[in-house]
Amino acid sequence: MNLMKFKGWRRTMVVWFVCVVVVCCFSVVTGEMTSPDGPLPMSTVSPAIVGNITISPSIKVNYTLELSSSAPVVLDSTITFTAKLRMNPNNTVPEGEFHYLWLNSANHGQDRSKSNHEAKLDKTFSGMRVDPGEYLLTVIVSPKTRPREILAFGNIMFRLTRRLNGNLKVKQNLEYQRRNDTFAIDREIYFHVNITDRFSMTKSPECMYFWYNGSELIHSSEKPGFDKTFLQPCVLYLQAEATASFLELDTSLSSLLPHDKEPKYGTFQEKLLFKASLSNCTVSRVDSSTDDQSVKLGDAIILNIACNGSSPSAVCWNVTGLNMTLNETCKPPSQFLNTTQHQVSVSIGQTGWSTVQLAVFNDISVHVLSQLNYYVYDADTVDIPALVFPIVFIVIGITIAAAGGAYIVRLRRRLHVEVADFDFDPNISVRTTNILSPVAAAVKHIIGRLRRWRDQSNRNSHSDQPGMRRSQSLYESL
Fold first, then answer.
1. Fold designation for 166-275
2. Rounded to whole angstroms, how far apart are CA atoms 109 and 209?
3. CA-to-CA distance for 107 and 78, rounded, in angstroms?
């Protein structure tokens, strides 16, 4: 019995000896070299450091421990450590609860917790006890039923700073933005400081924000953001200074948690460019007249494009079927020129009607031009009805209009002669210089004879009636 107890104690001592060796090997504190008062101001948050298991017991190599943290964080704020346990080789999630032992080299503290395959630890390091710098965290995972057995362990470096951490965000609603640091004038823009440090409920920080363009103060407020509109293109050296002051809460818990009462400071800087959007773009054809919509197969259409706005800019185009609109514009080219005036050469590889869709880009805008329709003809073929028919009808219309105009002018210049209306014998014809007069006389003669024949037929048809005969005899007696 005593021998078994001795073996158990020996195994426990071996486990703890391994833990102490790991902690001692990695417990090297390196202070920040950027400034004696802490790290230099940062405009962005460094990504969370993720570490994998470096050493594993040979009997449990099928476990992997992934560690991450919310570092960097300012002293007296809350840092979150995360541990995820996985099983090899398929990276599956183990079932059940596990014991987690958290060892840090910042204050040489130990924390224990029970959780499933994923565990988190929130911890605050006091600025009165810990200096800013980089420290080591070691996590040891054991089974719930066998807490003295090590399944996996890993380590991760985390950084504590003296100044506030966060980033500077700039937002503007733009349809197109080529560069993240370039924005448009004559449009509202929103500036915002995002402080990533989290503080516990026992401390209530009051923040004040000061915004500068170089050394010029442009805004100050207790709110972390503000709106502004720039009217002229410029370069903005934006600098935001944040000050966090802490008010002690009158609670017994706050008195048990010592922390630095001095205000926290943070500085965030960005260089921003403001440019004018593209507007009033015009396009004209160079190889022919602007109104010419025809082009020979194999020849290129040369177009001049000019826009108002800031450079650099670039032009792209799509060639589609007639009036076939695409859902999106063409993709901007990779090379931009330091001008807003361009000359492009557009080639169409098929005959018939096609539509050319042009778009002009600069750093913060895109201007889509009106669609241009062109007819491509093959000079080796004769059949080009799309051009022949319109030309023929145009020539005919011009001829008719010219002939009609000449005839009207001739009628206006002719002398008007009035002729007395004598009742000549219908058989006598009058010769005139008009070519149509004989034809008109013949037509009148035929119509007269037909009328007399009809009247005679009507009199003969009514001559047999008694009343008609008496009337006729009475008429003859008169």
1. Immunoglobulin-like (2.60.40)
2. 35
3. 15
- If one counts every other C-beta atom within 10 angstroms of the C-beta of residue 423, the result is 5
For 265-282, letters b (16+ CB in 10 Å) and e give bbbbebebebbbbbeebe
pTM: 0.62
Q: Report the candidate in 200, 216, 270, 195 with the shortest Cα–Cα distance to residue 239.
A: 270
Cβ neighbours around 311 below 10 Å, total: 17
Q: Which residues neighbour 122 within 8 Å (Cβ) at sequence distance 6 or greater?
A: 78, 79, 80, 81
- Provide the pairing of β-strand 294-296 with 372-377: parallel
The sign of the CA dihedral 109, 112, 117, 121 is negative
Q: Minimum mean pLDDT among 126-130, 333-337, 449-453: which range?
A: 449-453
Domains 17-161 and 166-275 share a fold: yes
- CB neighbour class for 73 (10 Å; exposed up to 12, middle 13-18, buried from 19): buried
Task: Identify the CATH assignment for 280-377 out of 3.40.50.1460, 3.40.50.970, 3.40.190.10, 2.60.40.10.
Answer: 2.60.40.10
**Domain 17-161 is classified in which CATH homologous superfamily?**
Macroglobulin (MG2) domain (2.60.40.1930)
Q: Is residue 3 pLDDT above 50, yes or no?
A: no
pLDDT of residue 300: 93
* C-beta atoms surrounding 198 within 10 Å: 14
Domain ranges of the chain: 17-161, 166-275, 280-377
Residue 341 confidence (pLDDT): 96
Please give the average per-residue pLDDT across 198-213, as a whole number: 85
Contact 333, 368 (CB under 8 A): no
Q: Give the DSSP letter of residue 187.
A: S
Chain position carrying tokens 């009636």: 465
- For the record, the structure tokens of 277 come out as 């959007």
pLDDT above 60 (res 293):
yes
What span, in angstroms and rounded, lies between the C-alpha atoms of 88 and 299? 65
Q: Which of 330, 371, 373, 325 is nearest to 352 (CA)?
A: 373
Indicate the Cα dihedral angle 125, 127, 130, 136, nearest 10°: 40
Residue 243 token pair: 């000050």
Residue listed under structure tokens 């039923």: 145
What does the angle CA 277 – CA 281 – CA 284 come to, to the nearest 5 degrees? 160
The residue that leads in pLDDT, 233 or 33, is 233
CA 84 – CA 118 distance, rounded (Å): 4
Q: What is the DSSP letter of 423?
A: -
Residue in 263, 129, 124 with CA at minimum distance from that of residue 201: 124
Does the structure show a pLDDT above 60 at 408? yes
